[in-house]
Design a protein that fits this description.
Elements (H helix, E strand, L loop, with lengths): L9 E6 L8 E2 L6 E6 L10 E6 L5 E2 L4 E2 L7 E6 L6 E8 L15 E7 L9 E8 L9 E4 L4 E3 L4 E7 L10 E6 L5 E2 L6 E4 L6 E6 L6 E10 L5 E10 L5 E7 L8 E7 L5 E8 L4 E5 L7 E7 L12 E10 L5 E10 L2
Parallel strand pairs: 2-9, 12-19
Antiparallel strand pairs: 1-3, 3-7, 4-5, 4-8, 6-7, 8-9, 10-11, 10-13, 13-17, 14-15, 14-18, 16-17, 18-19, 20-21, 21-24, 22-23, 22-25, 25-26
The structure holds calcium ion (2 copies).
One calcium ion binds next to loops.
Organism: Geodia barretti (Barrett's horny sponge)
InterPro entries: FlgD/Vpr_Ig-like (IPR025965), Secre_tail (IPR026444)
Protein name: FlgD/Vpr Ig-like domain-containing protein
Length: 341
């Protein structure tokens, strides 16, 4: 079979998925695919691709990728050059193992292409600003660039601005986030708000407003333009929000059987929460140690009994919810409850 093979290989070419005609205008960063096929195999030793620009010298190209996995019957070639405006001529030679060459008598396949645009070689820029409402005690509202290592003292909003000189590839945007001590996870698109207009693809805004426990965090942003220029930014910050106690009350109040739940909201988790119950004249009746002390809304039950196990009588009582942090500071709030059997 081999000795009688007189058929040259089949030659096909695609530029960005379309089979072009010679003389076509192609983009400055084309995806060029060539496929050579022969029943007896392509002898890749004899494959050459040469390129000439604007009548200059014909130069051999080597920066293409040849794929011969699965044998030599089908040989795909991937070539993704960066081209500048001008006229390009590509000369391709190839033959099978019997010496049958593509390109007829000339022995060469010639394609002429025109490039009219300048390639985009500049990756997008990534900027992050951090804003805070300044709601806490003695806090100023913040709106400034996020500097690596910044310590934030309240829950913050991160505004990421992407800018490109030509067009962003929205689908390439990735926001990884997490504790510096853990593997970063990509955020789901539903975790942040993105503003991107395909009609004005040079800009995109992303707003991320997480509600976080105190800790050290890392933001890792990846963006790309439509020419596959990639930009990456990694930045860390520390959240050190005050432990604040709010929404302190008890339900039911008054209580008819003496049993009630103390509820309270903690902005961050303290080390411990203690609840002390007093008579109206200030006598301490009961201390609830290790009360619920998590970030968010907490609920701690009281059975209506004093330290000796006696049920407390009808009347008005005061209670104090005390949150202590590891650094020794404490916050507390006082409430009033009634037992009415
Ligand atoms: Ca052949
Ligand atoms: Ca660009």
């Amino acid at each position: 079979m081999r000795s009688s093979d007189t058929e040259p290989p089949d030659f096909s070419i695609w530029v960005d998925g379309i089979q072009p005609q010679t003389g076509s205008v192609i983009p400055p960063r084309p995806k060029i695919s060539i496929v050579l096929q022969d029943t007896n195999g392509i002898d890749t030793e004899f494959l050459t691709i040469a390129r000439q620009k604007d009548g200059g010298p014909l130069e051999l190209i080597t920066d293409y990728e040849l794929r011969t996995q699965g044998g030599y019957q089908t040989v795909p070639i991937d070539y993704q050059p960066i081209l500048f405006p001008g006229e390009y001529i590509f000369n391709i030679t190839a033959q099978d193992f019997n010496g049958n060459a593509i390109g007829g008598d000339e022995g060469v396949v010639v394609y002429r292409f025109f490039v009219t645009e300048t390639p985009d070689l500049v990756p997008p820029t990534i900027d992050i600003r951090v804003t805070t409402p300044g709601t806490g005690s003695a806090r100023e509202p913040l709106d400034e660039p996020l500097i690596d290592g910044t310590v934030l003292t309240e829950q913050s909003r991160f505004k990421i601005t992407l800018t490109d000189d030509s067009a962003l590839d929205e689908s390439a945007f990735l926001l990884n986030f997490g504790s510096v001590y853990e593997t970063l996870e990509p955020l789901d698109a539903s975790d942040y708000a993105e503003t991107f207009d395909p009609a004005a693809p040079a800009n995109a805004d992303i707003t991320y407003a997480p509600n976080l426990p105190n800790g050290e965090y890392q933001l890792h942003i990846i963006a790309a333009d439509t020419s596959e220029n990639t930009a990456e930014l990694v930045t860390t910050f520390t959240l050190n929000e005050e432990v604040t106690l709010s929404e302190v009350f008890n339900v039911p109040n008054p209580t008819v059987d003496g049993k009630t739940f103390f509820t309270y909201h903690l902005a961050q988790a303290p080390d411990t929460v203690t609840i002390k119950i007093y008579s109206v004249n200030g006598r301490l009746l009961r201390t609830l140690v290790d009360a619920s002390a998590k970030r968010g809304t907490n609920e701690t039950r009281w059975d209506g009994r004093d330290e000796t196990g006696m049920r407390c009588a009808n009347g008005v009582y005061l209670y104090r919810v005390i949150a202590r942090t590891e650094d020794g500071s404490r916050v507390e709030q006082i409430g009033k409850l009634a037992i009415l059997r």
